[in-house]
Every structure is written in C-alpha cells, then in structure tokens.
Amino acid sequence: MATADVVALHGSLSNWGRWGPDDQLGALNLVTPEVTAAAAATVRSGQTVSCARPLNTEAAADNPAPVAHHMIGTATEGWGADYFALAPHGFATSHIDALCHIFYEGKLFNGYAADTVTAHGATRLGIHHLQDGIVTRGVLLDIPSVRGVDALQPGEAIFPEDLEAAEERAGLRVRPGDALLVRTGRWVWRATHGPWNVAAQAAGLDAACLAWLRERDVATLGSDAVSDVMPSRVEGVGMPIHEIAIVALGLHLMDNLDLDALAAVCADEGRWGFLFVVAPLVLRRGTASPVNPIAVF
User: Fold this and answer.
1) What is the pTM (predicted TM-score) of this model?
2) Helix intervals (H) in 19-102
3) Domain containing 251: what range?
4) How far is the C-alpha of 63 from the C-alpha of 242, rounded, in Å?
C-alpha cells in the first residue's frame, strides 16, 4: 500500500468515540456477556493449551533485554523465593499491549493526549483496565498450513486473501468479539535456523489487513511475532499494524505468543475456534503486561 493510503486509514477505520468519550477498553467492548457465554458454551473436551513462551532469561539476537531472575531464598535461607524483573515490550516476552503503548500525532486511542503517559505511568488506557480479563472465542488462522510450509520466512507478508483462505480451511468465519490469533511459524523457523533480529525481519500482516480487521470487528489480535510484517513495506510507517490497530481501532495486541501447540491441538480436535482466556497482571498505569493466554477446548 502507498504511504498516503495507509496514513488515511487513521481516519477511515477509526473507532474513536464509538464507545463513548471516556472509553478505556477500545475493541474489547465487543466482548459482551453474550459473546463470553457463547464462547464458554463451545467447550467440549476440556483440554487446555497455553499460548505463552517461557520467560526468557538468556540474551539473544531476538532478546537483547532478557528477563532477570534472581533467587532471594534458597536452602541456605530455609525457604524458596525469587525476584523477576522484565520489560514486557520487545520481541521475546509474550505480552499484551495496552492502548497507551502507541502514539500518533500526539494522540492515543479515542483522542486522549499523548502526555497522559507520564513518568508515573499512563493516566489513560493503562493495562489495569483489563483487570477483569478477556474471555471470548479465540480463532487460530494458521498461515503456514495454508501455504503448505512449516513456517513463513522472516519478512514474508500475510494478506487478506491469506486470512480468508485460512478461514475456509478452518471452516469458520472471524466474527465480532473474537480474539484473532495469526500463526506465522516463527518458533519453528527459530528452532531450525537459530535466533535472528526480529526487529529487522519478521513475518506478519501487511497493512492491507487493517481494513479486514475493522470489517470483522476483531476484539483483540495476537501473533507468534508482532503482528506487523517487518520491514513494513510502507515507506515512513515502520509498524502500521501496531500504529493503526492500537491508535485508531483500539485493538490490544498480543505479541510473541507461542501458537505451535495450539495449532497441533486444533488439528487433532478438528476445530480452530475455542474458548480463549487472557488475564493480564493488574499493573496500574502500565503500558503492557506479560501474559499466559489459555485456549480451552
């Protein structure tokens, strides 16, 4: 897409004001009690699957700021205790972005001023507004399976027609209030080829998918990378999915998930829709939270 066309999406796809001038949840408003109840009613086998990576304490090309894990209680002290410190954003930790994470022209989602994100945290759109969790239908669209490969190559783009081909393969349609999970096979690629600089090259959604996300009224979007294809293919716009999905659509994005086990269970169960539960930490005024999303079949 041309740069001007992508920039114009800030206006044409905007959800600003859709849920009122004081809204703090964005597209998660689409997860109504009725949507949650319908998703819960789909549980049959009771099998559960984690969609998170283990917290990574080892530095690598895709993890320049590893999680710090220090033991402060051992057999010596007479009890076990530890201390974790992490920066959730980046390309390693499974996390969910708050809507205060990205600015555009001095604004956050819903038109809040960027200076509401202060040295003491975000006074608007902080991650603590998700303290009641996300409980909705999850849908996995497994793009490598559609293309007949084990994993997409770093930098390979996903287009709306790929999403629709994955829907057809799964025998479903993404609908309002869904948590959409898009698998690129990142961790399969990493296991074969080793770590690389994901900030420079990552498979993900082309900017052309933004209108599709708005049309389907997705409530939240997650990927095993960062949702954006990188490089973005749009001059002057480094991460259009992050920039427009968060700021204009009000989509909380989940990055660095592990969707490989989920894909295997979906294939075994013959279903790519499931109950999906996300419980972010209640970090007041935070811009993100590490997460361990759970799919329930």
Assistant:
1) 0.97
2) 33-40
3) 3-59+93-296
4) 20
